[in-house]
Amino acid sequence: MLKKIVFGFKEKDNFVFESFADFLLGFDVISVETYEDNKDVVFLALEEKSYLQVIEKAKEFLSFLGVKDFDVLIEDFEEKDWVEEFKKFFKPFDMNKYFRIIPLWEKENNEIYAKDKLNIIVEPGQAFGTGLHGTTSVCAEFLKKYADKNKGFSLLDVGTGSGILSVIGKKLGAKKITAFDIDPNASGVFVNHFEINKLTLENVNFFIGEIEDLKVEKYDVVIVNIIESIVRRILKSVIPFVGDRLIISGILEKDSKGFEEFLEKLNLKLIEKRIKGEWAGYLLEV
Q: I need a labelling partner for 99 at 20 to 30 A (CA). Which of 70, 90, 185, 276 fits?
């Protein structure tokens, strides 16, 4: 049985709606819809896929965005071919001027590939990361900038989710990649994204766990693309792994001043800051 979950908001905020929809797409939901004429965000999920857990994670994400005034309605929903419906919703798009995102079901359509960008094939599913989010885009831009001047770099991808940034790192020539996430669903999704992009897992190490589970060694680039509260909690443990550059995103621009003060206390040198929508990203040196 399909479940229709409606998050009804008191006010419509396009930034919240876009961020929330992208967040939901990182889970095993069938479709996510927003509407011009009302204040609802609607998604469909299979009952056996623990939709209640998705609702709880969604509430946590909204709390992080500072949104508290909303209602949640759960209904049974008529069965349709929702895979096909979702395919209509998720179309190829340019993440930024360097990368184009191609959904798996479009991979045989040669006309939608960009000739002037790296094409990344994704399969939206159970782990966070479809390439839609501004935080992913800014991290990818910083990684491209570094790779252009530093061939054969090593990469540590903290909280990798679906593995899109690791896939991009591999395509940019990373000689060694270590990636991890605390979400058990990330394992299969990570491997799958390497396979559908026709990339080998040679010199790629993935595990389910936390930074404390990893033996300290230096990586040329370390990426931390997670919500601010987690970044603040783990950053001291991450710093010893940084050999050259640290890339951080997942920080709301409105909170960036306080976060930058936090970075200064850790003696991190800010090289560049970029804004994507409502999100801030940082390129740092230890």
A: 185
Q: What is the DSSP secondary-structure string of 59-100?
A: HHHHHHTT---EEEEEEEE----HHHHHHHH---EESSSSEE
Cross-strand partners of 272: 283
* Rounded Cα–Cα distance for residues 110 and 275 (Å): 32
On whether the pTM is more than 0.90, the answer is: no
**pLDDT by residue (tens digit) across 79-104?**
555 556 666 667 888 999 999 999 99
Tens of pLDDT, residue by residue over 46-66, are 766 678 888 998 999 999 888
Check residue 127 and give its pLDDT: 46
Closest CA to 179 of 187, 57, 37, 43: 187
CB atoms within 10 A of CB 10: 10
Of 142, 139, 149, 163, the closest CA to residue 279 belongs to 139
Phi-psi map region of 209: left, alpha, beta (phi>0 left; psi -120 to 50 alpha): left
Closest-CA residue to 141 (of 221, 58, 22): 221
| Nearest Cα to Cα of residue 26 among 246, 234, 183, 180 | 183
Token pair of 134 as six digits: 């501004």
Listed in order, strand segments (DSSP E) in 48-123 are: 70-77, 93-94, 99-103, 118-122
Are 248 and 224 a contacting pair, CB within 8 Å? yes
Phi, psi of 271 (to 5 degrees): -95, -45
Tokens encoding 73: 């309605």
The residue written with tokens 């693309």 in the block is: 225
- Cα 190 to Cα 210: distance, rounded to the nearest angstrom: 16
The pair of structure tokens assigned to 12 is: 């419509």
| Residue 6 C-alpha from the chain's centroid | 23
